[in-house]
Design a protein that fits this description.
The strands form two sheets. The chain has a five-stranded mixed beta barrel with strand order 3-4-5-7-6. It is of the alpha+beta class and about 260 residues long. Helix 1 crosses helix 5.
């Protein structure tokens, strides 16, 4: 394809020169894409270091994480060890375990999450950009979110919190190509740039819209099993519950897999 010169007519048909029309838009899009790809590299590097620290420095084993995940009465009659036996299930289970380890597993006597523990105790192991990423996790929003609109070219998904009805704009290249309007997903939303968020600690499971009732019932069941009662109406309580104890996002996912996907 022939390149467009700065002084050539803009291909959009506006009649203006390219440099005074769409060139600036193209440059902005290219810069945004570059920054996003760079962010993903930093995130991946920080995640790898966190997992290594958990293994080498804190001695957290996969069995520890599995035991914590299964420490709920909803798994009394389920053997979650079987979950990792097939190749497909192993990939899904490992994804859940890694996310849970980094964002929802209590570390040490203070019950910090791993990312917070790494900031407090192993900050020197991370680059300046990785530290900034870890610090951004302080402002996460955990929960279940329903897609309201998808802007495929910009990798943007506009979502609504299932419990609070708050709306968020998410940038996610993979999700924007695999999700459609009204699909539901879960995880943690991390501030990225201005009013845009990135999904952290998500799962590869997309819930069909009809599962909204199942999700709310399961989160409510987990909340009722929790001894600490929270203020607010039911939806507000459940939202606060997921933000205080993100582990229950992963428990809901696993319960969904056992009861619906696997059967």
């Amino acid at each position: 394809m022939q390149s467009i010169g700065r002084n050539d007519p803009c291909p959009c048909g506006s009649g203006k020169k390219y440099k005074k029309c769409c060139q600036l838009k193209d440059e902005i899009i290219n810069l945004e894409t570059f920054m996003y790809e760079k962010y993903l590299i930093v995130r991946s590097s920080a995640a790898g270091k966190m997992i290594n620290i958990a293994d080498d420095k804190i001695c957290i084993t996969p069995i520890d994480v599995i035991s914590f995940l299964a420490d709920s009465p909803i798994y009394n009659k389920k053997n979650i060890d079987l979950f990792s036996y097939s190749e497909d299930e192993a990939l899904l289970f490992q994804f859940i375990l890694n996310s849970l380890l980094m964002y929802a597993y209590p570390v040490g006597n203070l019950n910090d999450w791993l990312w917070k523990h790494c900031l407090n105790e192993y900050k020197n192991k991370f680059s300046q950009e990785e530290v900034l990423f870890l610090q951004s996790l302080e402002n996460f929003t955990a929960g279940f979110f329903q897609a309201k609109d998808v802007e495929y070219k910009k990798y943007l998904v506009i979502v609504e919190d299932l419990f609070t009805s708050n709306t968020y704009k998410i940038m996610d290249k993979g999700m924007s190509t695999g999700i459609v309007k009204y699909d539901i997903f879960c995880g943690m939303l991390i501030p990225y740039n201005k009013d845009i968020y990135i999904v952290e600690g998500g799962t590869p499971i997309i819930f069909p819209p009809l599962e909204k009732g199942y999700i709310k019932e399961t989160v409510d069941k987990l909340y009722m099993l929790n001894k600490k009662k929270l203020p607010g109406d039911k939806n507000e309580r459940l939202s606060k519950f997921l933000n205080l104890y993100p582990i229950n996002i992963y428990r809901t996912v696993l319960d969904y897999y056992f009861l619906i996907v696997k059967h």
